[in-house]
Amino acid sequence: MRIVLSNVKLMINENVYLKDPESSALGKKILNESIQLIKEIGFEAFTFKKLGQRIESNESSIYRYFENKHKLLVYLTSWYWSWMEYRLVFETANLTNPKDRLNKTVSLFTEETKDDESTEHINEALLQQIIISDFTKTLLTKEVDEENRNGFFVIYKRVIHRISGIIKEVNSSYPYPDSLASTIVEGALHQHFLKQHLTSLTNCSDEISPSDFYLDLINKVLN
Fold this sequence. Notes:
With 223 residues, the chain is mainly alpha-helical. It has helices at residues 2-5, 25-41, 48-55, 59-63, 69-92, 98-110, 124-139, 144-149, 154-170, 177-197, 210-222. The protein is built from eleven helices and no strands.
């Protein structure tokens, strides 16, 4: 991934932000420290005032980049899914067997993420933890339909459709590829959450990972 991300800028829908945070040192600091702060105190307790104190900058300077904390969260989740899309393309490029491509894809989207040192202002391991706990907050709002029309979720939908396409390569007669793709991605986030907080509701543990579960599932469903 170092080769890919050192030469490619992840593109986020311009409707999500007021000023591109990737365009300045302050913007990148806002992204970096917001991830750290949300992980520490949770999205509900997170405010631009607290973030401003953390980065030693006026709260108003953050509002020059994002209208509100919801759009900041949409930006962070969009960045994560765009990064995952590049990983998907890069790590499956040399796999010609559809089953191998699907197994690699499922592993990629269900495993624990490690920090990519080539993106100094984003800690992907911490960002994944925010995705696990808070991604659905970007969707479960009264404004979801309008935001969808404005392209807020285009990257996430593109990721799901890529996975769906690989599923159809493995079994073209399977009637629910989109549903299976979205179930794998969102279900894995939920299994990670249960593993961390509500252990009696999942078989995933230190010995059994969400990847083990979903690899077993897809191979049984698609055979």
